[in-house]
Amino acid sequence: MQSLLKTVSAARYIGVFGVSVKARPLIYSWFQYNLRHTNRANKLFTTARIGLRLGVGVVAGIVNNFCSVVMAAASIPDSLLTQADALYDAMKYEEIYSLLYSYKDSQNDEVLWRLGRATYEMAKAAQTEEEKKNLYRKALDYVEAALAINPNNFAVHKWMSILIDYVYGYDGTKARISQSYNVKEHMLKACELNPTDGTSWYLLGYWYFSIASIPWYQRNIAAIIFATPPTGTFQEALQYFLHAEKVEPNFYSKNLLMIGKCYLELGDKEKAREFLQRTTHYTIKIQDDQEAVIEAENLLKKL
C-alpha cells in the first residue's frame, strides 16, 4: 500500500510540475518497475491516468505510454498461451501468428517468443531464400524483444540461440562463426534456467558436434576472428545428446539420429546401429522426423 501511495504522489507531482528531459527515461523506468513488482495493475493504471489527466506535453506522453503497457499486459487472456501451444503442436503456425500478433506490443515475453517461434516455422516453409531470410530476421526481432523484457526465461534463450544461427548464416561463414560463442551462451543459459528441457540440451550437443565437424578452412576463419577459437569434440557432443535423452526420453527424432552419428564418429558401430535403428522406427509427425528417418536409413546401409 505504501508503494502504491508513493506511485500516486509521483504521478500527480510530474503531472503538475513537469519533468526535465534527463529525468524522463528514469521516471518511465520507475513506473515500469512498479508495474512489474505490484499485483494491483488496475490500481497502477488508475494512478497513471491521474498523472495523464493532470499532466501536459511530454509528461502526458510518458504516462500515456505507461498506461498502454499496463493495459496491454492486463488484457492478455489466460487461455491465450495454451491455445497458441496447442496450435503449435498441430503445426498451424500461421494461425498462431494471427492469434498472437495483436498482442505484439503487450510487453509480454511469453507472447513475443511464441511469435518468434511461429515466424521461424513460417520461414522454414517459405518459397524463396529472400523470404526465408526476412522471416528469420523478423523472428529474431520478436525474441530479442522478449529477452529485453525477461532475461530469465529459458525459452527466450533457447530461441535466441536457434535464430541467431539462422540469421547470421545468411551473412556467410565468417558471420556465422563470429556468433558461435553468443549462440553457445544462450544455449547454456537455457539449460541452466530449465535443466529438464531436452531440446536445450540437444541444441548444446549440436553446437559441439558442429564445432567438431568444422573443416580446416573454416577453422582458419575462426582463428582469425577469435583469439581463442571455439572448440568441441564428438565425445562432448555425445554427452549432451545422451543427457537430453535422459531428461526427456524419445522427445525428438534428430536427437536419436545425432547420438547414432556421434557413435559412428567415435568408431562404435554397434551403439551407432542401435540408435540409428531407433530413429528409423520413430513416428513421423513433422518434416524433421522424415529427414531423420531417411538419413538414419542411409547411414544403416553403410554399416
What would you report as the Rg, rounded to the nearest angstrom? 24 Å
CATH class of the domain at 77-150: Mainly Alpha
CATH architecture of the domain at 77-150: Alpha Horseshoe
Secondary-structure element pattern, one letter each: HHHHHHHHHHHHHHHHH
Q: Give the tally of β-strands.
A: 0
Distance between the termini: 71 Å
- Report helical residue fraction: over 70%
Task: Kindly report the CATH topology of the domain at 77-150.
Answer: Serine Threonine Protein Phosphatase 5, Tetratricopeptide repeat
Pairing-aware structural class of the strands and helices? mainly alpha
Can you summarize the main beta sheet?
none
Q: Which strand-content bin applies to the residues?
A: under 5%
Mean pLDDT: 83
Low-pLDDT stretches are 1-74
The backbone outline, from C-alpha atoms, is globular
**DSSP helix count?**
17
Pfam family, one: RMD1-3
InterPro entries: RMD1-3_a_helical_rpt, TPR-like_helical_dom_sf
Subcellular location: Cytoplasm, Cytoskeleton
Protein name: Regulator of microtubule dynamics protein 1
